[in-house]
Amino acid sequence: MTASVPISLEVNGERVDAHVLPRLNLADFLREHLQLTGTHVGCEHGVCGACTVRVNGDIIRSCLMLAVQAHDASVQTIEGLSDSGEIADLQAAFRVRNALQCGFCTPGMLIAAQDLLTQEAEPDRARIREHLSGNYCRCTGYHAIVDAVEATARRRRERTP
Ligand code: FES
Ligand code: FES
Question: Where are the alpha helices (DSSP H) in 2-120?
């Protein structure tokens, strides 16, 4: 029998201590241990981007990271970004532009889009598509998603003195 391993990390600003099996991935830890089910699991092998979260400020695919590798890390999920208001304008733009249908890809898409917008103030449509190219959407055709990200970038620039 495999022994569980103690881990301690920060998730959405709160300290979490747990015992996990070494093979448990971070996506399943977030969903099943912490009930943070906004992190979705699609392909489970690093292709679809549905499981995207932030770890120490960088976006990663949580299906490819073991929970034990997140020991001592700071993790932010879609719940954290949403509750803090950090992506409220981006979420509103997704709603207005109909940039989601079933919503399965949306948490990962929002986190990836916010990652781009925190790095670049004026990404053009090609750059937005490139940055989101690792996030699959089976419903929207991507056009409305790019519209929403572009509109959010524009509004943030207008708000910046
Ligand atoms: S579930 Fe992680 S990339 Fe698809
Ligand atoms: S809205 Fe359905 S997968 Fe993107």
Answer: 26-28, 78-84, 88-96, 106-119
Q: Which residue has the tokens 């598509």?
A: 129
Please state, in angstroms and as integers, the Cα–Cα distance from residue 118 to each residue in 32, 82, 104, following that order.
30, 15, 23
Ligand 1 atom nearest to 46, measured from its CA: 3
Q: DSSP state, 17?
A: E
Closest-lying ligand 2 atom to the alpha carbon of residue 101: 1
Tokens of 6: 């103690």
What is the rounded average pLDDT of the residues 40-44?
A: 98
Is the model's pTM score more than 0.90? yes
Rounded mean pLDDT of 138-142? 96
Helix residue ranges, H only, 5-142: 26-28, 78-84, 88-96, 106-119, 125-131
